[in-house]
Specification:
Layout (H helix, E strand, L loop, with lengths): L5 H8 L3 E4 L4 H9 L4 E3 L2 H10 L1 H14 L5 H26 L6 E5 L8 H12 L5 E6 L2 H12 L4 E4 L4 H20 L10 E5 H15 L5 H22 L4 E5 L5 H4 L7 E4 L1 H9 L14 H10 L1 H7 L13 H27 L1
Parallel strand pairs: 1-8, 2-3, 3-4, 4-5, 5-6, 6-7, 7-8
Helix pairs in contact: 2-5, 3-15, 5-15, 6-7, 7-8, 8-10, 9-10, 9-15, 10-13, 13-14
């Protein structure tokens, strides 16, 4: 078989999946051509796609405003968000059907403003589940988010835990998923079609440690920072395999090629931004199993020595759930997501006010 790209080869010859990390129909179509089996959105992505492809969404926005004369800008924004997810789900439906529901999902994220309210997240997740059969629902791994993951799983929602950067968060998600699945099974409810997922935003733990580096004038081997997210992800993967968790890990937030190449061969997914997909499609990096290759112990030693937050992120007992909301990467990402949501609202507001 001839392969269109290294990404296509990976998708055809290894258990490693990749997704398109946005909801642009054009970008998703290109990614599917090279083997993508999923897609994802978040508040920043939705705002970016809406802004960059606004001309194609103007008719939809104006129709939604006309059809919903009492709707607020928030109401219209969510209807647009939902339509983006439905459009992506339609593009991915052939993958969903061909794999018997094992792949072919698009993720839509719960309202970032709900990150402290487990019930609101679970209720919104249950509603999103009704949009299409191949919808997966994202919710942040805050303290409340862990509770929402369990409750949503119990309600039959395929969750994709996000705003997650650490081994303790990934383990909390896995345990919450297991509790939710056990509750369903105890009541005789089907779990065979469920594909729970836990994201680790490998590039965002790197971003945080680079901020710490600059603030505290730290000097380390540059490769240590390039590999810090890789180390966290591989440690979480090792524990998932040892404990037999049913959730699947997903790598996100790309900053360097190790965030792809080092995970090839693992039974994991990767949600790759379109600009990185373009790079990987044209690269000459070989497709080979690297998931089992350990991160250099000398690099790990530097990270542990200089960054207490790396140790908190890497060690299974590095944090308790009540600490998740206050971890540096969590605070930075939540703020970015909230600001991204505000950007979407501002676009919708122009059409409501100006017509």
């Amino acid at each position: 078989m001839s392969y269109k790209s290294p990404l296509h080869q990976m998708s055809q010859t290894t258990p490693t999946h990749f997704w398109n990390d946005n909801c642009s129909r054009k970008d998703l179509a290109f990614a599917i051509e090279h083997g993508a089996v999923g897609a994802t959105t978040n508040p920043v992505i939705v705002g970016q796609v809406l802004e960059s492809e606004l001309d194609s969404y103007v008719p939809l926005i104006k129709k939604l405003i006309a059809d919903n004369p009492t709707a607020t800008e928030d109401d219209i924004a969510w209807l647009v968000n939902e339509q983006m997810a439905v459009d992506g789900a339609e593009l991915l439906k052939p993958v969903f059907d061909a794999t018997g529901g094992k792949a072919g999902y698009i993720s839509i994220q719960t309202n970032a403003k709900y990150y402290r309210d487990a019930k609101k997240m679970a209720d919104q997740a249950e509603y999103f589940k009704s949009l299409a059969p191949n919808i997966m629902v994202k919710m942040p791994v805050s303290a409340a988010g862990v509770k929402a993951v369990e409750e949503s799983t119990y309600r039959g929602v395929n969750v994709n835990a996000t705003v997650s950067f650490t081994v303790p968060q990934a383990l909390a998600v896995a345990e919450a998923v297991e509790r939710g699945l056990a509750r369903r099974e105890k009541e005789g409810l089907d779990t065979s079609g469920m594909q729970p997922t836990c994201t680790i935003m490998v590039g965002r733990i790197e971003d945080w440690l680079r901020d710490v580096t600059n603030r505290e004038n730290i000097i380390v081997d540059p490769l240590a920072l390039d590999m810090c997210g890789v180390a966290v992800f591989k440690n979480a993967y090792r524990i998932y395999k040892e404990r037999g968790y049913r959730a699947r890990l997903l790598a996100a937030a790309y900053r360097n090629h190790y965030h792809w190449s080092e995970f090839i061969g693992g039974e994991v997914s990767m949600t790759i931004p379109p600009n990185w997909i373009q790079r990987f499609v044209k690269c000459d990096i070989t497709v080979e199993n690297r998931m089992g290759n350990p991160v250099d112990p000398a690099l790990l030693a530097q990270l542990h020595k200089h960054y207490p937050d790396f140790t908190r992120a890497y060690e299974p007992d590095g944090m308790k759930p009540e600490e998740f909301d206050f971890f540096g990467s969590t605070r930075a990402t939540l703020m970015q997501f909230l600001n991204g949501y505000d950007k979407t609202i501002s676009i919708i507001r122009r059409f409501i006010v100006n017509g």
